Predict the 3D structure of the following.
Amino acid sequence: MLKVENIDLFYGASQALKDVSFEVNIGEISCVLGRNGVGKTSLTRAITARQPITRGSISWQGENIDKLSAPDRARLGIAYVPQGREIFSQLTVLENLQSGLAAAPKGERFIDDEIYSLFPVLKQMLKRRGGDLSGGQQQQLAIARALVMRPKLLILDEPTEGIQPSIIKDIHAVLELLKERGNMAIMLVEQYVEFAKNLGEQYVVLDRGEVVLSGLNQDMDEEQVRSHIAV
């Protein structure tokens, strides 16, 4: 579904990614691991066209998308749940969900009841402002907002960061269900190794903008991975 090949990314004179390659397949969760500041978020920004790459290529369903804008990539079915959630604090939960419909396919710009099955707490809070929700509830809202556009690729940047254990379990269950359906590719960016390993099929570890480890999750050497994540 998604193929990232040998990409470089710069912020001015500072290089954030160097020769990074990565794949995400339909029906699988692929994990990107690493400590803060190693290029994980830069990789998501490159894929979603929020930051241009200077070398390499990004292809989606066999077609090069390097020159497509962020809205165009969203309309292709690439959904992004950013680090820090970035919900609209002054809008209601319902309005936040509706904001995700702009990129949904024509004829499907409505909120499916399944969203409320996946995140029951949101149905009880539709009229509450996003800023009044707890951090865990805001994270659920951010994921739900991405799902209303019926994505083919879901990118999540550190969805467990600062979230209480009970909500982490709920998010784990949702991602497991989405994976089992087999009609979506999921890219999970994480520092929480156990969470990623229990969900994913494959992984890459970034350090200083480069891939230093990669392989199948079942073959992951946790001690070696942690050596690149521990501060």
